[in-house]
Amino acid sequence: MKQLLELKRYYHNGTHKSNCMLVISSREFRQNQRKYFEKVDNGEHIIVQRGKDKSYALTPVSEDDLYFNAEMVQRIKQSILQAEQGKLTRVASTKEINDLLGL
């Protein structure tokens, strides 16, 4: 099993404060998910390494991070209403898509 690598990072705000960043293998994460989720909940930074060149950061998701929050749901409903009213733009070619997106 791949060994855990613990790195210390120091932040300077008048005092020295250290946060841990753990780099773990995907196998280690699978076997001990609860442990690592708890560490993230307690402010630690966890990087899951998958293979030689892929890494993923574990971060807690708050309501503000969710894509389908109340504002987004309202925008989707407004778009549906506009489409039902015929207020839409039809695109059929790559050029039309690029023009619409300003590319």
Can you offer a commentary on this structure?
By secondary structure, this protein is an alpha+beta fold. The protein folds into 2 domains: 5-58, YefM-like fold (3-Layer(aba) Sandwich), CATH 3.40.1620; 63-101, no CATH class. The protein has 4 helices and 4 strands. The protein has helices at residues 26-31, 33-41, 70-84, 94-101, and strands at residues 5-12, 16-25, 45-50, 54-58. It has a 4-stranded mixed β-sheet with strand order 1-2-3-4. The protein starts with a strand and ends with a helix. Mean pLDDT is 79; it is low at 1-18.
Strand arrangement in the largest pleated sheet: 1-2-3-4
The ordered H/E elements are: EEHHEEHH
Contiguous low-pLDDT stretches (5 residues minimum) are: 1-18
Taken from the alpha-carbon principal axes, the silhouette is: elongated
Main sheet specs:
4 strands, mixed
Bin the strand percentage.
Answer: 25-35%
Overall average residue pLDDT: 79
Which structural category fits the helices and strands? alpha+beta
Gyration radius (Cα, Å) is 22 Å
Termini separation comes to 48 Å
Total number of β-strand segments? 4
Tell me which CATH architecture of the largest domain applies here.
3-Layer(aba) Sandwich
CATH topology of the largest domain: YefM-like fold
Question: What key attributes describe this structure?
Answer:
single chain; 103 residues; alpha+beta; YefM-like fold; 2 domains; four-stranded mixed beta sheet; 4 helices; elongated; disordered N terminus
SSE map:
Layout: E1 5-12, E2 16-25, H1 26-31, H2 33-41, E3 45-50, E4 54-58, H3 70-84, H4 94-101
Parallel strand pairs: 2-3
Antiparallel strand pairs: 1-2, 3-4
